[in-house]
Design a protein that fits this description.
Blueprint (H helix, E strand, L loop, with lengths): L3 E7 L2 H9 L4 E9 L8 H5 L6 E8 L6 H9 L9 E2 L2 E2 L5 E5 L2 H17 L9 E4 L3 E3 L7 H4 L1 H19 L3
Family: Belongs to the MsrA Met sulfoxide reductase family.
GO molecular function: L-methionine:thioredoxin-disulfide S-oxidoreductase activity; peptide-methionine (S)-S-oxide reductase activity
Organism: Vagococcus zengguangii
């Protein structure tokens, strides 16, 4: 069994776990923080906006079953790639959308996918999701892990605007 990791930031990490967790070849989806200047930040520190971190998910997957390219495509369909200042009801720097790459191949896949999405005409605004080199990833507190399973009612309430956007944008055809 081969194993690789991918890190994506797309707003609230609670809402980013479920779409990946349901895919074949995914071993784990961990909620955490990345791209900031504070080591081992807490949720409260990240929410303060003073750590530079964004909420993200670290996906461990089997590349012989699901490709990095497929993960990037799933990612696009979970976010509003035209909103650099948060996602849906979650606003601020800690909710910014970012695809983190670990090598040149991943960078090229992400950049090509972003350009394809821009050229598709699906969105009237520019695609502003950042594509950046991977930064240290810090695992979030236990109560954030698998939140959609632990507190389905609260998860449903928090994911509503995202789910409507995804349905209207990707499944309306």
């Amino acid at each position: 069994m081969s194993e690789a990791k991918a890190i994506f930031a797309g707003g609230c990490f609670w809402c980013m776990v479920h779409p990946f967790d349901q895919q074949p070849g995914i071993h784990s989806v961990i909620s955490g923080y990345t791209d900031g200047h504070v080591v081992n930040p807490t949720y409260e520190q990240v929410c303060s906006g003073e750590t530079g971190h964004t909420e993200a998910v670290e996906i461990t997957y089997d590349p012989s079953i699901i490709s990095y390219e497929a993960l990037v495509e799933i990612y696009w369909q979970q976010t509003d790639p035209t909103d650099a200042f948060g996602q849906f009801q979650d606003r601020g720097d800690s909710y910014r959308p970012v695809i983190f790459y670990q090598n040149e191949e991943e960078r090229l896949i992400a950049e090509k996918s972003k350009q394809t999405l821009q050229d598709s005409g699906r969105f009237n605004e520019p695609i502003v999701t950042e594509i950046k080199p991977v930064a240290p990833f810090y695992v979030a507190e236990d109560y954030h892990q698998d939140f959609y399973k632990k507190d389905p009612l609260r998860y449903k309430a928090s994911s509503g605007p995202r789910e409507k956007f995804v349905k209207d944008t990707w499944h309306a055809e």
